[in-house]
Design goal:
This protein has helices at about 15-25, 30-55, 60-70, 75-85, 90-95, 100-105, 105-115, 115-130, 130-140, 145-155, 165-175, 180-200, 220-225, 240-255, 290-295, 325-335, 340-355; strands at about 165, 205, 265-270, 285-290, 310-315, 320-325. It has about 375 residues and is α+β, with helices and mostly antiparallel strands. The chain is globular.
C-alpha cells in the first residue's frame, strides 16, 4: 500500500504500518530504522503533490504573476497570495473530462431539462420578472422564453449556481489541465480583473466546475464583455440579481447576432441516408435550405432558399429524429458548443411559451415566441 494517495491528498498507511510493527514486537532499532526509511519514501512521494498544489511556486504560476503585474498593474504579492490560496480539485478535473453533452444521447439529455417542474418554475420565473423580460425582448430582440430557458437550463432559474470556489476551479484548470490550460489561464486573468472592477472578493465567489458564475453561468470573460447593469443600480451583478442576469443573457445573444423573428429549428421527416453529406458535423450551418429541399426535406418555417441550415439526427426516445436547424439555433450554441444543449434550450423555451399562454397564465406572461 502506498503511503500517499494522490487522489484525496490524505496520509493513509505510513502511521498504520508503524503501529503494526510496534504491536508485532519488533525491536525498537528495527522500528526506528524502518520508520525512517518510510519517512524518506513518504517525503519523496509527497513533495511533487505539494508542489503541484502550490501554484504560486510553479514556473507557470510565476509567469502568471508577472503577467498580471506587468500587463494589468496588479501587486505581484497579491496575485501570489491568491495562487497560494487556490486549491487543486480532482473533482473538477473529473467533471470536465465527462460533460453530459458528450456522454448522453438526446433522449437521456432531454429528460434532465424538459420536465414539468422545470417548466412550471420557468413560467413562475417569467411571471415574477415580467417587466425585465418584456424590456429585454423589446431592447434586444430576443424572445423572453429563450432568455428564461437559458437560465432554466443553466441554473434552474438561479436555484443551482454551483458550489465550487471560482478561484479553485480556474486555477485547477489553468495549471493542472493541459488540454485547455491556456484558455483557463486567460479566464483566471479575466476573473482577477472582474473581481477588481466589481469589488468582489476573489476568494469568495462560487460557481460551476469550469468557473462559470451566476444565473446565466457566465465565464469571467463573458461576464466582463456581456454582463450589464440592467436595473441601473450601479452594479453589474448577475450573481444574485435576476434582472441583471436577464438583460445580460439578452445582450449576449444580440452580440452573437440573434435574428429577431427568425426560426430556430423544426423537426422534419427523416429521409436522409446514414452518412449523407447533408448531415454535417460542424455546428455552424454551411449548407442552404435549398440543398435540403432538393433532398426531399420541405421545411414549414418561413425561410428563404439561400438561408443557411444544418440537419442533425438525434437519438429520440422513440427512435431517430431529424431536425433542420437555422441561424438562431447556431447562436444558441455560442452559449454552449453543443447541439444537444441548443435543442434543450429551444424545446424548453417552446414549453415555457406554450404553458405561459394557457388561460390560467394569461394575466402573467403572454406568448413571446
Amino acid at each position: 500500500m502506498p503511503a500517499w494517495t494522490g487522489g484525496n491528498g490524505r496520509f493513509t498507511s505510513g502511521r498504520d504500518n508503524l503501529a503494526r510493527l510496534i504491536f508485532a514486537g519488533s525491536s525498537m532499532k528495527t522500528v526506528i530504522k524502518r520508520a525512517c526509511n518510510g519517512l524518506v519514501v513518504v517525503v519523496l512521494m509527497l513533495a511533487p503533490a505539494l508542489v503541484s498544489a502550490q501554484y504560486d511556486k510553479t514556473s507557470e504560476g510565476q509567469a502568471f504573476v508577472r503577467e498580471m503585474a506587468e500587463r494589468y498593474g496588479f501587486e505581484a504579492s497579491r496575485v501570489e497570495a491568491l495562487l497560494a490560496a487556490a486549491e487543486r480539485k480532482d473533482s473538477i478535473l473529473d467533471s470536465i473530462s465527462r460533460p453530459a453533452e458528450k456522454t448522453l444521447e438526446w433522449h437521456q439529455y432531454r429528460k434532465i431539462f424538459i420536465r414539468p417542474d422545470r417548466i412550471r418554475q420557468g413560467v413562475e420565473f417569467l411571471t415574477e420578472h415580467r417587466e425585465a423580460f418584456e424590456r429585454a425582448e423589446e431592447e434586444y430582440g430576443v424572445p423572453a422564453p429563450i432568455i428564461a430557458a437559458i437560465i432554466g437550463v443553466e441554473t434552474w432559474y438561479g436555484t443551482y449556481k454551483g458550489n465550487h470556489r471560482v478561484l479553485d476551479a480556474l486555477a485547477t484548470l489553468a495549471f493542472d489541465y493541459p488540454p485547455r490550460s491556456r484558455f483557463f489561464r486567460s479566464e483566471l486573468a479575466q476573473y482577477l480583473l472582474l473581481t477588481r472592477e466589481q469589488g468582489f472578493d476573489p476568494e469568495q465567489l462560487t460557481g460551476s466546475y469550469a468557473g462559470a458564475m451566476g444565473y446565466g453561468q457566465f465565464i469571467s470573460s463573458s461576464y466582463r464583455h456581456y454582463a450589464i447593469d440592467f436595473d441601473d443600480d450601479g452594479v453589474v451583478d448577475i450573481l444574485n440579481n435576476p434582472v441583471d442576469a436577464i438583460g445580460s443573457v439578452a445582450n449576449y445573444f444580440r452580440a452573437h447576432h440573434w435574428k429577431q423573428g427568425e426560426p430556430v429549428a423544426e423537426q422534419v421527416p427523416d429521409r436522409l441516408q446514414e452518412g449523407s453529406p447533408l448531415l454535417t458535423r460542424e455546428l455552424k450551418p454551411s449548407l442552404e435550405v435549398n440543398d435540403y429541399r432538393q433532398a426531399g426535406l420541405t421545411p414549414e418555417a418561413k425561410v428563404a432558399g439561400d438561408d443557411k441550415a444544418r440537419a442533425i439526427r438525434l437519438a429520440g426516445s422513440d427512435g431517430p429524429e431529424l431536425w433542420l436547424t437555422y441561424h438562431n439555433f447556431y447562436v444558441i450554441t455560442r452559449y454552449n458548443h453543443s447541439h444537444l444543449y441548443a435543442m434543450a434550450v429551444f424545446q424548453l423555451a417552446n414549453a415555457l411559451s406554450e404553458q405561459a399562454s394557457e388561460p390560467e397564465h394569461q394575466n402573467g406572461m403572454g406568448n413571446s415566441s
